[in-house]
Amino acid sequence: MNSVSGRRLKFFVKTLLLICISRANVTAQEAPAFRPYKKGRMFAYWGWNRGFYSNSDIKLRGDDYNLTLYGVPAHDRVTKPVFNYNDYFKLSRITIPQTNFRIGYFIKDNWAVSAGVDHMKYVMDNNRMAMAKGVIEREGNYRGVYNNNIKLEEDFLTFEHTDGLNYVNAEVEYYRSLGSFLYRALNVGVLVGAGAGALVPKTNVKFLDYERNDRFHLSGFGADLKAGLDLIAFRHLNLKLEAKKGYIDMPDIILHKKGINGKAKQHFWFTELTGTIGVNFSILKQ
Q1: Calpha distance 235→241 (Å, rounded)
Q2: How far apart are CA 39 and CA 110, in angstroms?
Q3: SS3 per-residue string spanning 34-80
């Protein structure tokens, strides 16, 4: 190819690129603005969480014991290895980790109502010292009157809501878009919200030599405040990062297998961090 032909080819390629870029800019400017938080839009998402809990007093009441443990610490239970296919993505096991599911609807511009389940997990710390007050009349190593610190050994008490600490709730959420980027392919927004709901845990408790309960039960209520970052890519792919602060009160926790009297009470604060993925779509003409 001679130099003249080469210069003509370069000129043609540069002109074509300029036309494409100019056309893309015009198309982006002429396209109607995307309004992700307009009345009539919906969202649904699934994801995972980490939970952090304040210390709590656990009151244990049964036919032959009446005992309160003060300032008991607890932690969540992360399924490891994190994001392995078998536990996190296999359909038959996706409820094994700590998960979140929510569906919502924008009742007016920027305002949505939603309902969902925060499937957290709560595990009392064993082998820690706690103040105990009360009495155990059941025969065995732990029979006696208590007004002292005791070690929370596993043969004395294991106390878990691990299938899980299920917070079934409804929330009101306010969204605000910070703008669109990458030729409007990505919308960045923020949100705040508040909610309340019921606690339906499957409590796994081994206390003394009683047989475990292991069944779901409506045990109490909760309330929360939250804030987060909302990303919408290509108008429909929805990514959310949220931080939630809440209060849980469970005055009716079942301890033992059916037919054996035994209940517990506790209340505590929780902090929940979530990351979810879902869809954002409209059911009304935009």
Answers
A1: 18
A2: 7
A3: CCCCCCCEEEEEEEEEEEEECCEEEEEEECCEEEEEEEECEECCCCC
Nearest to 260 by CA among 216, 202, 209, 220: 209
- Going from N- to C-terminal start, the domains of the chain cover 1-31, 34-282
Asked if 132 and 150 touch (Cβ cutoff 8 Å), the reply is: yes
Tens-digit pLDDT string for the chain (286 aa): 555 555 655 665 565 455 445 544 544 454 567 789 999 999 999 999 999 999 999 999 999 999 999 999 999 999 988 888 888 888 888 888 999 999 999 999 999 999 999 999 999 999 999 999 999 999 999 999 999 999 999 999 999 999 899 999 999 999 999 998 888 889 999 999 999 999 999 999 999 999 998 899 999 999 999 999 999 999 999 999 999 999 999 999 999 999 999 999 999 999 999 999 999 998 776 5
Whole-structure pTM value = 0.86
What's 34-282's CATH class? mainly beta
